[in-house]
């Protein structure tokens, strides 16, 4: 693992109207780390990911990616090379064949005519086939995407990330709509591929079990604040219990 | 627990009853209309005469048994088909050119993730043109167009296209408004620009729906050619009007058969092509 800090978050805050979503949050992410964001609903996990994806802007504080502020990544194409996103299974275009959804990961590098031409004669077929092979769907190249099951669709999304090759992968509840067996499968693949490609992963998860099983570092948020930030094997059950505890009635 | 009725509902119920009672009073009491008069001996005579005419009973020249009139009718059928294809072609082209800025989620930037100040202006302009185009019936468009052009199938096609452009535009803009924005946001985060989002995200999701609407409107246009034909826009409609005026009832039967065939063809094509798209 290199010493380089790929993400630095310094005293970051975000409010919605009167509600505080994140309050002066700080942490540092090294290159190649696999981080799980855990915490109860409304703790600010999605807000944090949206800030990292530059879908939202922070009210105050500093957010550095690769030592540069987020504003330097305002160009979509540049940002796509740095940061890739995977969400629940609704992020593919269902009417297109699988291969186009995979090749969409290359759109950042393609111009107008190549993208248009690609819809009729798929370009870079070799790479797309390899990517699909790596996620275990080698024979679904020309299948209509909406005909695939939820787990298979998430694998296609992973194959797209393989084509996109971002340095950081943000995963927002990547397995929320899958059954346990498929969820295991997708997370296993996500972390394995990220290790192979030396990518950094930040994933928000509902399930603590998955977080401990597949990720190296757990960041727990509660009410927009950092609750704990520990390596996965040092998290105790008591801490988790406190994290998910409902507010005591006073 | 008993629900409290709104006073408006009660009022409209009684108003409804009153309206029915007074209408019947007007029809029977004041106008002296009677149901039996509708089925009078005279009316029956007219009806039998007309239908016998359509079937060609007791006539010397029966158009739908005549080879020459069939070949004439066939030419007119082809003309009508040409007119309808031209009409749907024109309106589809113009619809495609205007439909994207006419969708609300493009105007406010949620679909393409880019905002421009002039989007709402363009949106309003196109939507008003849609309303204008479909508010005027085909027949009126045809009368206006024929005032300018010579009668024939081209002005007929233009008139039909003018009316259907507004309908298609509105329907298709609504299809775009209903598209799921989540896959599109994800394309944007994969680095796709505006044109690429349209190519990969928007068109593949909306085109099958567009096709359904276009084919449906084509079928409607085919039937409406009879209406614009009445004012001299050519095709079967014009011939229909002439045969009506000359009391050539068997020709009317022949033309109706031709229409039937046209609609069956359109039905078949739209069914097949929709299956093909899926």
Automatic annotation (TrEMBL), chain A:
- Classify the source by domain of life: Bacteria
**Chain ranges of the ABC transporter domain:** 7-248
Q: Which Gene3D superfamilies match?
A: P-loop containing nucleotide triphosphate hydrolases (3.40.50.300)
Q: Per the record, what is one GO cellular component?
A: membrane
For this UniProt record, the keywords arranged alphabetically read as follows: ATP-binding, Cell membrane, Membrane, Nucleotide-binding, Phosphonate transport, Translocase, Transport
Q: Which GO terms describe its molecular function?
A: ABC-type phosphonate transporter activity; ATP binding; ATP hydrolysis activity
User: PANTHER family from the xrefs?
Assistant: AMINO ACID IMPORT ATP-BINDING PROTEIN (PTHR43166), PHOSPHONATES IMPORT ATP-BINDING PROTEIN PHNC (PTHR43166:SF6)
Q: What is this protein called?
A: Phosphonate transport system ATP-binding protein
Q: Which organism is it from?
A: Mesobacillus persicus
The organism's taxonomy opens as:
Bacteria, Bacillati, Bacillota, Bacilli, Bacillales
TrEMBL record, chain B:
Gene Ontology CC:
plasma membrane
Q: Which residues form a coiled coil?
A: none
Query: Keyword set for this entry?
Result: Cell membrane, Membrane, Transmembrane, Transmembrane helix, Transport
Question: Tell me, what's a Pfam family for it?
Answer: BPD_transp_1
Membrane topology, as annotated: Multi-pass membrane protein
Q: Name one GO biological process term.
A: transmembrane transport
PANTHER family xref list: ABC TRANSPORT SYSTEM PERMEASE PROTEIN P69, PHOSPHONATES TRANSPORT SYSTEM PERMEASE PROTEIN
Q: Which residues form the ABC transmembrane type-1 domain?
A: 77-270
Its recorded name reads Phosphonate transport system permease protein
Q: Known InterPro entries for this protein?
A: MetI-like, MetI-like_sf
Question: Which stretches are transmembrane?
Answer: 7-28, 85-105, 117-133, 139-162, 197-216, 246-269
Family to which this protein belongs = Belongs to the binding-protein-dependent transport system permease family.
Task: State where the protein is found.
Answer: Cell membrane
């Amino acid at each position: 693992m290199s010493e380089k800090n790929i993400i630095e978050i310094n005293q970051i805050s975000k409010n919605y109207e009167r509600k505080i979503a994140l309050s002066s949050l700080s942490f540092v992410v090294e290159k190649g780390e696999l981080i799980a964001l855990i915490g109860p609903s409304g703790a600010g996990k999605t807000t944090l990911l949206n800030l990292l994806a530059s879908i939202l802007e922070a009210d105050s504080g500093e957010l550095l990616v690769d030592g540069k502020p987020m504003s330097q990544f305002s160009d979509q194409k540049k940002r796509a090379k740095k940061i890739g996103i995977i969400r629940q299974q609704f992020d593919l275009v269902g009417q297109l064949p699988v291969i186009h959804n995979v090749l969409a990961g290359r759109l950042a590098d393609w111009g107008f005519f190549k993208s248009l031409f690609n819809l009729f004669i798929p370009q870079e077929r070799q790479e797309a086939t390899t990517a699909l092979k790596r996620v275990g769907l080698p024979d679904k190249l020309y299948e209509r995407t909406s005909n695939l099951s939820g787990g298979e669709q998430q694998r296609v999304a992973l194959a797209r990330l393989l084509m996109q090759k971002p340095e950081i992968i943000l995963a927002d509840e990547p397995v929320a709509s899958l059954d346990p067996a498929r969820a295991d499968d997708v997370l296993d693949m996500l972390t394995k591929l990220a290790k192979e490609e030396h990518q950094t992963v930040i994933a928000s998860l509902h399930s603590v079990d998955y977080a401990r099983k597949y990720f190296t570092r757990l960041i727990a948020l509660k009410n927009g604040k950092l609750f704990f930030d520990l390596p996965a094997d040092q998290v105790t059950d008591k801490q988790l219990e406190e994290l998910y505890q409902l507010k005591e009635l006073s | 627990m008993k629900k409290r009725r709104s006073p408006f509902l009660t009022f409209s119920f009684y108003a409804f009853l009153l309206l029915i009672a007074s209408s019947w009073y007007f029809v029977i009491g004041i106008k002296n209309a009677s149901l039996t008069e509708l089925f009078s001996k005279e009316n029956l005579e007219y009806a039998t005469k007309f239908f016998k005419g359509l079937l060609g009973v007791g006539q010397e020249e029966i158009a739908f048994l005549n080879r020459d009139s069939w070949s004439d009718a066939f030419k007119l059928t082809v003309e009508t088909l040409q007119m309808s294809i031209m009409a749907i072609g024109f309106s589809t082209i113009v619809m495609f050119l205007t439909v994207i800025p006419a969708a609300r989620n493009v105007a406010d930037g949620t679909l393409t993730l880019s905002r421009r100040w002039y989007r709402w202006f363009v949106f309003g302009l196109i939507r008003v043109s849609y309303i204008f185009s479909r508010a005027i019936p085909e027949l009126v468009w045809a009368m206006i167009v024929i005032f300018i052009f010579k009668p024939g199938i081209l002005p007929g096609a233009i008139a039909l296209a003018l009316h259907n452009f507004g309908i298609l535009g509105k329907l298709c803009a609504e299809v775009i408004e209903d598209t799921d924005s989540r896959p599109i946001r994800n394309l944007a985060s994969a680095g796709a620009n505006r044109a690429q989002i349209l190519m990969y995200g928007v068109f593949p999701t909306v085109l099958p729906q567009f096709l359904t609407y276009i084919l449906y409107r084509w079928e409607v246009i085919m039937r409406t050619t009879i209406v614009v034909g009445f004012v001299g826009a050519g095709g079967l409609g014009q011939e229909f009007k002439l045969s009506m005026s000359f009391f050539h009832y068997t020709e009317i039967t022949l033309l109706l058969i031709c229409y039937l065939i046209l609609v069956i063809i359109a039905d078949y094509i739209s069914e097949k092509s929709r299956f093909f798209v899926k």
